[in-house]
C-alpha cells in the first residue's frame, strides 16, 4: 500500500506514477487481474527509497540541531 500518489510529492518517482496510472486507466480489469503489479512494485520500491533518504536527512538535521542546542546550554551553564 502506498500513500496518495502525486508527482510533486515524489518527483523522482513521477515516471513510475504515470506508468501505474496509465496501466490502471487502459483497462479497468488490468488492475484487478494483476497486470499492473510490476509497475506497482517498482513504484513502491521508489517511494520506499525516497522515504528512507528523507528519514536519514531528517535524522541528520535533528542531530545537528540537538548538538547546537547542547552547545548553547553548555555555554549558558559556564556563564
Automatic annotation (TrEMBL):
The record's subcellular locations are: Mitochondrion inner membrane
GO molecular function of the protein, one example?
Answer: calcium ion binding
Q: Which residues form a coiled coil?
A: 52-79
Q: What are the alphabetically sorted keywords of the record?
A: Chaperone, Coiled coil, Disulfide bond, Membrane, Mitochondrion, Mitochondrion inner membrane
* Record InterPro entries: Cyt_c_biogenesis_Cmc1-like, EF_hand_dom
Record family assignment: Belongs to the CMC family.
**Among its keywords, does the record have rRNA processing?**
no
What name appears for this protein in its UniProt entry? COX assembly mitochondrial protein
Provide the primary localization.
mitochondrion
Q: Where is the EF-hand domain?
A: 64-79
Q: Name one GO cellular component term.
A: mitochondrial inner membrane
Role according to the record: Required for mitochondrial cytochrome c oxidase (COX) assembly and respiration.
